Amino acid sequence: MNLIEISVLNSSEALSTFAATWQDAATGKEPIPHLAFGSLSQLFSAISAKRLDLLRHVATHEGLNVRQLAQSLQRDYKNVHTDVVKLLELGLLERNAQGLLSAPYDEILIHAELRHAA
């Protein structure tokens, strides 16, 4: 199963995560892909409920272009296009040479602490 972890991290936590990933890669261990945001609001801005719905749809209906995806979701083309561009930038969607979309991950784990450990 292809998995990506998404976390809300402060700068020191992000640096620790980066160091651990670097160390894993140096030892030949396949690192788990990871996205990090500095706050919950940044995470929710980048990965909204509509974008999650779009990801789920693409994961189960791969091979659609943006127009077909907008029609399937019964959403405005321009808004779907904006969402697709953002999800492509984040690496949560992929587009082949013909412009058809696919989801590279089967599972997304989102971690967001409510309290920082003392």
Supply the key terms.
118 residues, alpha/beta, three-stranded parallel beta sheet, two-stranded antiparallel ribbon, 5 strands, 16% strand
In short:
This protein has about 120 residues and is α/β, with parallel strands linked by helices.
Please count the beta strands (DSSP E, at least 2 residues each).
5
Give the mean pLDDT.
Answer: 90
Give the SSE order as H and E letters. Answer: EHEHHHHEEE
Q: Please state the overall shape, judged from the principal axes of the Cα atoms.
A: globular
Number of helices: 5
Task: Give an overview in words.
With 118 residues, the chain is of the alpha/beta class. Helices cover 48% and strands 16% of the residues. The chain has 5 helices and 5 strands. The strands form 2 sheets. A 3-stranded parallel sheet has the order 2-1-5.
Topology:
Layout: E1 3-8, H1 11-26, E2 34-37, H2 40-46, H3 49-60, H4 66-73, H5 77-90, E3 94-95, E4 101-102, E5 107-111
Helix pairs in contact: 3-5, 4-5
